[in-house]
Amino acid sequence: MASSSSSSIGHRRPRLADEQEQTPPAQVPRRQGKAEEEEEETRDWTELPVDALLAVFGKLDGVDILMGAGHVCRPWRRATREEPELWRRVHMRRRARLAYDVDIEAAARTAVRRSAGRCEALLAEDYDGAPMGYDDDFFLFLADAAPMLKSLRLISCNKVFPQMINQTIRKFPLLEELELSLYHRGSIDDCLIGISEACPLLTCLRLNHDRFYYLRMPFMGGWCKCKSTEVARMRRLRSLQLFGNSIRNEELSAILDGCRQLESLDIRHCLKVRMNDEMRARFARVKTVRLPEDSMEDYELPYGSPINDFIYYSGVMYPD
């Protein structure tokens, strides 16, 4: 996607709150009952203090603010446009019903731009079937617009090449949390090159696949020793999630030896890990360990049945 079209949204989508439009004051709902109706008539929702508005808006996803709350009335729109504090944490989750209605990349640009350089956390979730989404131009923009970023969670961002992801991540020396989940545009190894040195404050890392493939190749996100070496250099790492990876005992042992401060390890559906006395002894010093066969009840992302050979299992499971 060209950067010149990034700040606009296609004709089929609803209008972003950034666009100028005269909007009427918020309509006050009337309750049943005379006393309650009189009370509601005296309440002016447009006069809510800014602090109260920010507290409410802070509970919403970025898409909900840009396409909902920001359209209610002028004071609300002004709060969403002129309060950088509201955009310190930007959550742009791609819900299925928004896939063809919203240019989520343009919405994310608007949110990050409104943070005025104060954005500290970005969750960017794309949708493989959507015609518009995060691309290389967005990541070039992000590297310059969010220098204070501490948390970067990328889910299904498969329109972006791994070299661009790597180049962008290396621009955030304050980064403490990094997620690259459901990524299959290229090798995650290429995304991680030099990250341990460029982001020395990393404490949380998530590298999750959609399912386990016994024969997953490196260019499909398969595990290789260079990835273990890079993760093992993240000395401050406290939480590591590796769902559906093809990591083996040797690579996992290297990570445990390097990440001595690790407190949480999730290797569910990492079915090449063999539990033996040596691995149990290594896990003993980690406070919380989720093993390959453990329950998926609290897993947040969609996942598929493991593929242990060339037989394809079509069933896709979703957590409650």
Automatic annotation (TrEMBL):
<dbReference type="InterPro" id="IPR001810">
    <property type="entry name" value="F-box_dom"/>
</dbReference>
<feature type="region of interest" description="Disordered">
    <location>
        <begin position="1"/>
        <end position="45"/>
    </location>
</feature>
<dbReference type="Pfam" id="PF12937">
    <property type="entry name" value="F-box-like"/>
</dbReference>
<feature type="domain" description="F-box">
    <location>
        <begin position="42"/>
        <end position="90"/>
    </location>
</feature>
<dbReference type="InterPro" id="IPR036047">
    <property type="entry name" value="F-box-like_dom_sf"/>
</dbReference>
<protein>
    <recommendedName>
        <fullName>F-box domain-containing protein</fullName>
    </recommendedName>
</protein>
<dbReference type="InterPro" id="IPR032675">
    <property type="entry name" value="LRR_dom_sf"/>
</dbReference>
